[in-house]
Every structure is written in structure tokens, then in C-alpha cells.
What we know:
Helix 1 (14-45) runs antiparallel to helix 2 (53-74). It is elongated, with a radius of gyration of 19 Å. It has helices at residues 14-45, 53-74. It is 64% helix and 0% strand. It has 85 residues and is mainly α.
Amino acid sequence: MPPRWPRKPDRNDPEFRKLDDRMNFAVHVAVAATINSGLWFFHILKTTTWEWLPLLTAGWVLVLLVHLIYIVAIANYSPTPPKST
């Protein structure tokens, strides 16, 4: 069951931004896991080696770590002040 939001979704809402960033991270992890596991599966079946595959996997893990550090430690989820017109 998908998460339900009790009010109208708005990127100005700090709680919604935090939830949205975490759900985007979960999608990023799922895509990375799917693609990498598929590549490694076919790598195991092949008789030749793919020398670039460990570098791709390591690079993707590094990107995931940077993404995680951003949403946990760097992102500012404080309420945004209203813009004056």
C-alpha cells in the first residue's frame, strides 16, 4: 500500500520534502540494484569477462552513498519563509 499524505502535497512543506527525498532515494536504490544484479547475472553466464563491470558497480554505490549523505546530513528541511510580493 503506498504511503498516504494527510494534506495536499506541497514541496514547500518540510515534512513532505523529507518524505519525497527519501522515496526518491528508495527508487534510486531499486533501479541500481535491478540493473546491477542483471548485469552481474549475465556476467556470470558469459565466458568472457567484463572488466568494466566492477567499476560501474563501485561508481553506482558511490553515487548512492553521496545521495544518502545528502538526504540524511546536508538537506535542509526547515520551513521555507513565505515569499513577499
